[in-house]
Amino acid sequence: MKILICGNEFHENALSGVQQxxxxxxxxxxxxxxxxxxxxxxxxxxxxxxxxxVADSAQAIAVDVVLSIGGDGTFLRTVQSVAFRSIPIMGxxxxxxxxxxxxxxxxxxxxxxxxxKGDYDVEERTMLQLMLPAGQSLSRHFALxxxxxxxxxxxxxxxxxxxxxxxxxxxxKGDGLILSxxxxxxxxxxxxxxxxxxPLSPCFVLAxxxxxxxxxxxxxxxxxxxxxxxxxxxxxxxxxxxxxESFDLPSGTTMRIAKAPFTTRVIMLKGQHFARVLRNxxxxxxxxxxxxxxxxx
Length: 297
What we know:
This protein is an alpha+beta fold. The chain contains six helices and 20 strands. The strands form four sheets. It has a six-stranded parallel beta sheet, sandwiched between helices. A six-stranded antiparallel beta sheet has the order 9-8-19-16-11-12, with no helix packed on it. The chain has a six-stranded antiparallel beta sheet with strand order 15-14-13-10-17-18, with no helix packed on it.
């Protein structure tokens, strides 16, 4: 098995777990390569590590599996590099919540052993594709979590005209609009009141951000549909964010948004389940009443 390791800077309390994982991999029969920037970072913060095999880029190496070490931001960056090549990704959490990650860094060695034995499942996660008019382009067109349309350089509301499969749906007025995948339903979408969706559901979600009218509510629609979206702002530009990377577009730009032609293949270890992830990550059922109230005098 050949594994590509991607990552980012992380909290110091994760260094010990990362060092143990790398030492284990270097001593095993697994062939590894570490993305160049991450390898340089590791050799700086963990000088006791032996030299790491370096990959020039995620696209330039043929691998069986990718380990993404960090948090959700690291995972999304890794997706941009390898998803179009159908390489399965396992997220190893060395950050905060790590909702997209499969295992914590403290259990990473056991997870790698499961990988080597083939004791895992691969979930095909639907992505969004953002398409612009001819002559306009972005460096990021595909999203595992969401595409967000946001106001910029104005305190006024932004107006977003939306049609669904060529039929006018409505005009959203407010701070913006989120188009979320099922995987991204627990991200930005959740924070604005959108629904939680099972990650394998064949649908997407439209969720308004601070809508001007109370009748504007999140909408769930089938992932075979094509959205046509035109954003208008009193400012000369508005902002589009694709999985957290932001770009400015001229006011009045029309975009098409649909299901991407490929998926993100996410590794899930045996026994992992959507309900269990929700319960653990969102702390459902936890009683916080005994914790100290920050605002208590």
